[in-house]
Design brief:
This protein has no helices and 11 strands. The chain is an all-beta fold. The strands form 2 sheets. Strands 2, 4, 5, 6, 9, 10 and 11 form a 7-stranded mixed β-sheet that branches. The protein has a 4-stranded antiparallel β-sheet with strand order 1-3-8-7, with no helix packed on it. A hairpin with a 3-residue loop joins strand 9 and strand 10 (about 105). It starts with a strand and ends with a strand.
Length: about 120
């Protein structure tokens, strides 16, 4: 059974940091590229960051460049999103996504940036 389980969301003040984790199971994690998306009410789902399966190439949305870092640990079947200098506009539900022979989604974790 394929599972992607996100964790690490929560409430943080502007300027703070959070690290999201996404634990994968049920498929060969190392063969899949991984992405983080986010969605807030009334808005379309937005691609935030991605990391490839092979060389670990990373890409970021312009809105998070220099503040967010995506990484993966294939030994732990886990992808991370380190989020620094958080802003209120980063408030959203964050989803991880695995893309390869198939596409899988996690259930999401809520991030709220507010004072």
């Amino acid at each position: 059974q394929v599972q992607l389980v996100e964790s690490g969301g929560g409430l943080v003040q502007p300027g703070g940091s959070l690290r999201l984790s996404c634990a994968a199971s049920g498929f060969t994690f190392s063969n899949y590229g991984m992405k983080w998306y986010r969605q807030s009410p009334g808005k379309e789902r937005e691609l935030v960051a991605s990391i490839s399966s092979t060389c670990g190439a990373k890409n970021y949305a312009d809105s998070v460049k220099g503040r967010f870092t995506v990484s993966r640990d294939n030994a732990k079947n886990t992808v991370y999103l380190q989020m620094n200098s958080l802003k209120p506009e980063d408030t959203a539900t964050y989803y991880c996504n695995a893309w390869g022979r198939s596409v899988y989604w996690g259930q999401g974790t809520q991030v709220t940036v507010s004072s």
